[in-house]
Design brief:
By secondary structure, this protein is of the alpha/beta class. It has 20 helices and twelve strands.
Amino acid sequence: MTQPGRRSGRPSRPRGPHPPRRSHHPSRPPADDPARQAALDTLRAVRHRDAYANLLLPQLLRERRITGRDAALATELAYGACRLTGLLDQVLAACVDRPLAKVEPELLDALRLGSYQLLRTRIPAHAAVDSTVDLVRAELGSRVAGFVNAVLRKVSEHDEETWVSRLAPDAEQDPVGHLAVRTAHPRWVARAFADALGDTGAELEAALLADNERPVVHLVARPGEVSAEELAAMTGGEPAPYSPYGVRLEQGAGDPGELGPVRERLAAVQDEGSQLCALALTRPALDGPDLRWLDLCAGPGGKAALLGALAGINGGTLDAVEQAPHRAKLTEQYTDGLPVTVHVADGRDSGLPAGAFDRVLVDAPCTGLGALRRRPEARWRRQPSDVGELTRLQRELLTAAVGLVRPGGVVAYVVCSPHLAETVGVVSEVVRRTGVTPLDARESFPDLPGVDAGPHVQLWPHRHGTDAMFCALLRK
């Protein structure tokens, strides 16, 4: 006998909130939805095989010939859902009657995609829900599509501000925790930013919000080949405010790799903060020779190319060390035609002669917390446990650099992170152990506003429009 309220012959509805009746709106998106499919495929690759969204999605768009408004939509949805994963999961956890760990990963990807549309875009709620349901139905069938429909309709009952007010800690009692939820950051990342800024209020919020903004593309002109002003005229950009070789492009300028100056190797894509940190190495005065420079962690070669070009202008050379063979190959390609010799070796034991170099750059591996705006998924991929292993490696590389620079020479220690353990913590320990002298790095960043008390320099997206690069200069 059929149970009351259930039609005979129909499968039971999967566990989850009971869905309201679906609305059949006349403007429902078509089943063929290349933009949302590309976004969903990106989310799945990020989760399943640790893909990088900013590398994979452009490839998918090219392969599938998705352009124009569809490409813009796919980019917004994929990058946005990656950035907001933690917040989206908190909202979804409140709408599903089981732990999210027990929801099929493929469904969770779709739920994140749909939830992002509901909370962060102007896409009508019915279109956000129906389009996501259509994707799931086409791949996984009607049974699970009903579950997705029910959950997303529950998400749509509140806007983002209301969900945050329900889920975030109290702003007065726990300002860092509140801002972490509001800006979709892991709490430990928000705490690291607060410690580096010495602020838990308006500036911390500005720094966290800057991670959620789409970054402007920066170019670097190759010294001796083209000026920043010439490069700006060639690309339609504007000369950068701080780097004498930098150009900033407008939003929506297209694939920078297709620009003529980039294809012709007159320029490259490089954040202005990275340019400034590489240039800082070249600015302290030296007594004696200044012809042998070293990049101890060179891959993929951006800073090596800039330093190699500058060294060559003055008749000098650059040695570039990179442990990973494929990154060493990229460094060779970046520096082709420059007085640069690439060595495949571990920077901690490079085999290069001690005390042989006048200037040494240590652009050390780090958490990358300073470039979260460029790597949408990175904030959720990194863990606090990563910091200890990285700081040990950073200390070893910086100590090796001190051994390779000559007396009177200069070492630049650079990381793309504001985490105090990776910045002042590493530098202080190496200074104590080796006796090198910290220089006032602020003097090597002329006319740069918003710099705190030295001797080191910490850049910030919300202050400078660059990645959050850190630079310390040390003299042996």
